[in-house]
Amino acid sequence: MQNKGLIKFFAILFALVSIYQLSFTFVANNIKNDAKTFANGNSEKELRYLDSIGKEKVFNLGFTDFTYNEVSDKQINKGLDLEGGINVILQISVKDILKGLSNNSKNPVFNKSLADATADLEGNKPYLDKFFDAFEANSKGTVKLASPDIFANRSLQGEGGVDFQMSDAEVKKVIKRKVDESVESAFGVLRKRIDKFGVTQPNIQKLGESGRILVELPGAKDVDRIKKLLQSTAQLEFWETYKIEEVGNFLMAANEALKKTEVSATEAKPVVKDSLSALLTDVKDSAATKKGNNPLLDKMVGQGGGPVLGLFSPKDTAVINGYFKRPEIKNLLPAELRYVKFVWGIIEKSKDAKDKEIETVALYALRGNRDNAASMSGSVVTGANATFDQLGKPSVSIEMSGQGAKTWEELTGRAYTQKTNIAIVLDNIVYSAPGVSSGPIAGGRSEISGSFTIDESTDLANVLRAGKLPAAADIVQSEVVGPSLGQEAIDNGTTSAIVGLLLVSLWMLVYYGKAGWYANIALAVNLLFLFGILASLGAVLTLPGIAGIVLTMGTAVDANIIIYERAKEELRDGKSLDEAVKISYSWTGAMRSIVDANVTHILIGAVLFIFGSGPIKGFATTLLIGIITSLFTSIFIARIFIDKNIAKKADLSFVTNFSKNFFTNFNFDFLKVKKITYIFSAVVIVVSVFSLATNGLDQGVDFVGGRTFQVRFEKPVESEVVKEELAQVFDGSAEVKIFGNDNQLKITTKYKVEEHGTKADEEVNKVLFETLKHHYASGITYDKFVNAYDGKKLGILQASKVGPTVAEDIKTNAYWAVLGALLIVFLYLVISFRKWQYGLGAIAAVAHDVIFVLGIYSLCYKFMPFGMEIDQHFIAAILTVIGYSMNDTVIVFDRVREFLDGKTKGNFAEIVNKSINSTMSRTINTSLTMIAVLLIMFLFGGESIRGFIFAMLVGIVVGTYSSLFIATPVLVDCISVDDKKEIEEHHTEK
């Protein structure tokens, strides 16, 4: 090996750099453990401890030192499935942005196009492109985007804006730029909010041009609070209000009108004697106030007064909103109320007539106008701080700009004169509606009060300081992982990694003896390099990422196996050890097979990286890095020891007494049995396709949308019983399966999955809690059931939500990923082997493997004791199977090509059979190491990746079979008779 000294230098340098990079992870983990010990389970105390030492020097290398913040930035970060925390994808509403840019246009073509674009769920096509397509189809050239009532409005005119003379193509460019600016603005606002939230190493990134923003908050635990913080648009407004006396007659008239269309309530409730009922009638127990006859008034559960029209139950707000939207009810509004805007307050606790605590929400009537604009917008706010009001309750103090202070003084002056109230409205919810009792308020200071907790007032101040979002931000995908589940994943991953490493190392020693030691040293160096690169890149380690590392152990020895097997062949042919090693490491020896196999593998990994997201991207990252480091260590590190052995003239045979006779006289006629294998594979494919058509697949929420909860109970529970209970409250949409142990269930539902916002998520969580809480004998609170905390063992350990639009995009990505991988590999093999028959044989084998795995999943998912869902992890497994199947096939094809181009005697079939038989030791060895590693991961890797590993396990077994019995026979059958005769003549001559 030339330049041996240079390779040693780089290897040592690379090892030192890797150790340096990994040292930060070691130090950071020690400090985190100290913080956990200090906090004793209190997560807030733990965060405060880490924040307090953020700028302290904690790592001294002699020539330089680092603060904790610097150390933390350089460590290998753990993904949510290992660390615990919250991961959400927010969809910035491009529809809302377009409405704003059009100045809320009433143009029917524009609004129909918005609706059509919303209804179109075509995967991976941005909403803006859908809107442009819909507008073109609806307008048919009769309406232009540059119409004055659409985008050529006053707010978009001027330099860089829209002119009414522009063509649609020109307007599209402007609108795309404006939408991008709005998404960028939203990105900045969210980043400011997250920075204030106080989690360690938050991650936020835009996902292409989709208008989606990924937010990862490792270690975050308060689910509902974080979702509110992220989704709040922070649209702050100040409205003047009507008093109950001004609106009472309309409510009475609406109630009377509703009597004619609404079915009377069947359950009598205690009569609420409040100021509104006093307005409606002076007759005690009259028909007007008799319970059961008043669709609107009967829903009132508490007394109103001043700006509050009454208190209602939160569950009735949607019904009442529906009443007010009815045309016949709107027609009852008198002229002075024609622009009224009915808005709800925040949910508060109060007591009913029986002194029982209930949740209530107040109804307000705001003084609207023709433009539906508030008296003063929140854009005037320049500062906000969490504080306490005069009663010592948490509140938010706000400061206004000069112009805002002037407007605020006018507004409060008018309220003082007219004895009205000013409603402080945030995201269409009234937080408070104070009166003004001491004259106009100067100075631009005000206070937002309500039934806040300290956390709520802090969050509200944070979002007001960060600014409002330019459009609604809906959570279209989310995942919540508890810290205890993350620790279990780490333990399972570590166990599978250690056992896998020991198993592979032991096999290399047993099979190759001294050469196996060299391969194991190369494997250890490979792992050091792999982790060092992950640390230097700031990569995030996930559970599938750990699986990728364990798989790297299996593939890391593949190149050594190919080289060693070739060296054994050369030694059997009478070559010296030096000659055998040189030939095995040459291009005509093992290098060509190694390069071809790993290039196909790298191409598959690249497809995974491009189309994958989250944990799958982490899997692809470790896989790609592992392939490169494995090649380096297998080819160069092991070679250093082998050359040293040769220089000392020590014995090295690449065999042991156990393995020396393995496959030495192996002579099987693979082509003779091709009809049998064709029939067997054809039957398998037909059965698989039939099962896929009739039985289908267990598609996970990644592909169909929905909500998934991993719930752990104190004792084993019956999944069918829980399914029946949940089906009643989730509108029949409930799938329940045992997940691992008998006391753990995986619950899937589509209930309210299309509804965005924290309200829908909270409602689903509460319904789930109320339905399942009776299964906990010791009792469990809602907070402990839903939210994550250190040491959590019961309740929701993991929760995820995938909206239908995101699911459609994931499914589309999956199709393109698989098809793209097949096409890329086919083209590479055609170029590399210079014959299309090789590419076709490989693709036939891979297609066979994919259909086989899909068939197994279709046939078995209903009764297997572990999850067999078709999701992103499964697609990653399929792509990995394609890569490894190609690996085996390429090794066989390289030997077939070598024998056909070489001096081997015999007819065409004999030459091909000899070439396949000569690869058996390599093929079986590489497959066995992979199967052993996958089996270890299947047994010890944890429930969450068991289905993922099973797909790869089946795929590797089937891939080994197809490489020998499908790929080569298809290759042979595709070669023309004339070409076969020419090859035979060539070999006869030689």
TrEMBL record:
Q: Which domain of life is it from?
A: Bacteria
What's one GO MF term for it?
Answer: protein-transporting ATPase activity
Q: Which GO terms describe its cellular component?
A: plasma membrane
- Record-linked Pfam families: Sec_GG, SecD_1st, SecD_SecF_C, SecDF_P1_head
Where does the Protein translocase subunit SecDF P1 domain lie?
184-240
Q: Where is the SecDF P1 head subdomain domain?
A: 373-471
Q: Where in the cell is it found?
A: Cell membrane
Q: Which residues cross the membrane?
A: 493-510, 517-540, 546-564, 594-613, 619-642, 676-693, 814-831, 838-859, 874-893, 924-942, 948-972
- Which residues does the UniProt record annotate as the domain Protein export membrane protein SecD/SecF C-terminal? 473-640, 791-974
Q: Does the keyword Protein transport apply?
A: yes
What is the recorded membrane topology of this protein?
Multi-pass membrane protein
The record's annotation in NCBIfam families points to: 2A0604s01, PRK13024.1-5, secD, transloc_SecF
Under the heading HAMAP family, the entry gives:
SecD_B, SecF_B
Q: What job does this protein perform?
A: Part of the Sec protein translocase complex. Interacts with the SecYEG preprotein conducting channel. SecDF uses the proton motive force (PMF) to complete protein translocation after the ATP-dependent function of SecA.
Q: How does it assemble?
A: Forms a complex with SecD. Part of the essential Sec protein translocation apparatus which comprises SecA, SecYEG and auxiliary proteins SecDF. Other proteins may also be involved.
The protein here is known as Multifunctional fusion protein
* Native organism: Flavobacterium flevense
